[in-house]
Amino acid sequence: MLEITFYSSENRTPYTIEVAEDFLRWLAESDFMEIGVEHLTELEIDGETAKLEVVKLGRGNNSNRKRFRDFLLEAIALESDAVLNKVADAATKDEYRAIVYKLSKLQQLRKCMENEIYQYLQRV
To answer: Angle, nearest 10°, between helix axes 64-87 and 93-114?
Structure first.
């Protein structure tokens, strides 16, 4: 499993989303990796100072947050269609989970992106 982590600028505990390697590969081949530029940033995390390569999310219509959100909403819409076409054929719970995995992770990312507590994103 690999991780995408959201950080606050207010010394809050980061929120990490674990993703499968194939999902991260899909993100890497999409526009997700083209959004924002990673900068070495000093953050306070749980009382400790760390320097991390992160993307500042920001606010407003031209922010990285909006660009990520727009990307995720479009990906969710496309994946929803794919899931609806496949879910009827799912015979087992494991098959169902495999079908909805990508959609579930996209929704997790979208919810974090919309939460303005988080000001930074780390793609590891």
So the answer is: 160
Q: Which amino acid is at 103?
A: L
> Which residue type is seen at 35?
I
* DSSP H or E stretch at residue 33: none
* pLDDT tens, residue by residue, 60-117: 888 999 999 999 999 999 999 989 888 877 778 888 888 899 999 999 999 999 999 9
Dist CA 113 CA 119 (whole Å): 9
What is the distance between the alpha carbons of residues 108 and 5, in angstroms, rounded to a whole number?
11
pTM over 0.85: yes
CA-closest candidate to residue 117, choices 3, 2, 12, 5: 12
Residue 33 · residue 24 · CB < 8 Å: no
Cα–Cα distance, 114 to 104 (Å, whole number): 16
- Domain assignments of the chain as residue spans, ordered by start: 2-123
Residue 96: both structure tokens together:
């169902």
